[in-house]
Design goal:
The chain is of the alpha+beta class. It has 2 domains: 2-236, Rhopdopsin 7-helix transmembrane proteins (Up-down Bundle); 248-389, 2-Layer Sandwich (Alpha-Beta Plaits), CATH 3.30.70. It contains 12 helices and 4 strands, in the order H-H-H-H-H-H-H-H-E-H-H-E-E-H-E-H. It has helices spanning 2-28, 32-59, 63-92, 102-117, 121-142, 159-187, 199-237, 248-257, 275-282, 284-301, 325-338, 368-389, and strands at residues 265-272, 308-310, 315-321, 355-362. Helix 3 (63-92) packs parallel to helix 5. The longest helix is centred in the middle third of the chain and has 39 residues, at 199-237.
Length: 390
């Protein structure tokens, strides 16, 4: 029994450390599930303290004190099991606690009444441990719908597997303690199996593994959220906020990616005429709307895989891989038609938006800058002609 008592004392000292660890994580990581787990571990640490008080009360023949402390021990362990289960549910779905409080009420009634009804606390333990074990198995089933946030196979989620494994071990341990205790009380004159002397150590090892898995799971979720945020920031850094088109930074990054590529194609440089006059006469809202209309019309003329850039205030660039300037001409003429009779904020009548454009072919990605320069010259020539006609 001394070995069993030593193992139990180690468990009593270790569980509060787990509660502190999870509490520290709640200060850095948002999530209702983590708060529930932390409160649950605090309840378990308190339950073990009451169980420790039960031992001297039993030794000194104080049945009232023994039954009272054992009753609190049972109820607090059920609170731990319930919050563990609820926390696991909240990993995968929104779970209002009040909706499932009935799952806790029945075990609580047993914990409050059984120590005063059964002859000894050993008789209560026969039923208490399977009830407690069922909470671990419920929590295990609740984790089956969990999916990691990250969509990359380069970062597998190990934490949830550790949690599941420890929940299974704890569930099987506590469920089997019931019949084993029954055999000890009723069949073997209160003498337990030898291996049961170390049952607190088995519980502690599985509980520490569960806490480790929980910490891993939380850290993995933080990592996934940071990676998702970084991807969003990277996408935002390469996207023009007004039009949603790619920006100059995206063009530079794409050119770096194409450094060793081999393909030909064509480019179109497009410029919106009279943007300054629109801004001066009707305000920047009208000018911004005109830019957005040109961007939308450009995207409509090309495939989703054809990169369209806003390279300046009223300047746009399109790269058509595998295309030719002759093919781009038809698209630009369609663009002219799409921009006629547009409604702009602050402008009483419909406006024909006029763009100037220039085209050029390239034989390899390395030649794109030269092609853009040629297309730019062609665009300015077109701009001069269209202003003269306009």
């Amino acid at each position: 029994m001394e070995l069993s008592y030593l193992a139990f004392n180690i468990q009593v000292l270790s569980v509060p450390l787990v509660a502190v660890l999870l509490w520290q994580l709640t200060r850095a990581v948002p999530g209702r599930f983590l708060v529930d787990w932390t409160v649950g571990w605090v309840a378990l640490a308190t339950a073990l303290l009451f169980l420790q008080l039960t031992i001297p009360a039993k030794a000194h023949g104080s049945p009232t004190a023994e039954r009272f402390t054992f009753s609190l021990y049972c109820c607090l362990e059920y609170v731990f099991g319930f919050l563990l289960w609820i926390g696991c549910r909240e990993l995968t779905r929104v779970t209002p606690i009040r909706r499932y409080i009935w799952v806790l009420l029945l075990p609580l009634m047993f914990g409050l009444l059984a120590p005063w009804i059964f002859p000894t606390t050993d008789h209560v333990y026969i039923f208490h441990t399977p009830i407690f074990g069922m909470f671990f198995l419920l929590a295990l089933m609740a984790t089956q719908g969990y999916r990691a946030n990250v969509d990359s196979a380069s970062h597998p989620s190990f934490g949830v597997h550790v949690v599941r494994g420890c929940l299974l071990i704890l569930g099987l341990l506590f469920v089997h303690y019931g019949p084993v205790t029954y055999w000890s009380v009723w069949m073997n004159n209160g003498q337990p199996f030898a291996y049961m002397l170390l049952s607190p150590m088995y519980d502690l090892l599985a509980e520490v593994g569960l806490a480790f898995g929980m910490a891993m799971l939380v850290i993995e979720r933080v990592r996934d959220e940071l990676e998702a945020k970084n991807r969003e920031l990277a996408a935002a850094a390469r996207t023009d906020p007004l039009t949603g088109l790619l920006n100059r930074r995206a063009f530079d990054a794409m050119m770096a990616e194409w450094k060793d590529a081999t393909f030909s194609g064509s480019v179109a440089v497009v410029d919106l005429n009279c943007l300054k006059e629109l801004n001066d006469q009707h305000g920047h809202a009208a000018g911004d709307a005109a830019i957005q209309l040109v961007a939308r019309a450009l995207k409509a003329q090309f495939r989703i895989t054809d990169p369209v850039f806003r390279t300046g205030g009223d300047e746009f660039l399109v790269i058509l891989e595998g295309g030719h300037a002759a093919e781009m001409t038809g698209r630009m003429e369609s663009l002219d038609a799409a921009l006629k009779a547009q409604r702009l904020p602050g402008v009483a009548v419909a406006v024909d938006l006029i763009v100037a454009w220039g085209l050029a072919d390239f034989t390899s990605p390395a030649a794109i800058p030269v092609a853009i320069e040629r297309a730019d010259h062609a665009m300015y020539a077109c701009k001069t002609v269209r202003k003269a006609v306009g």
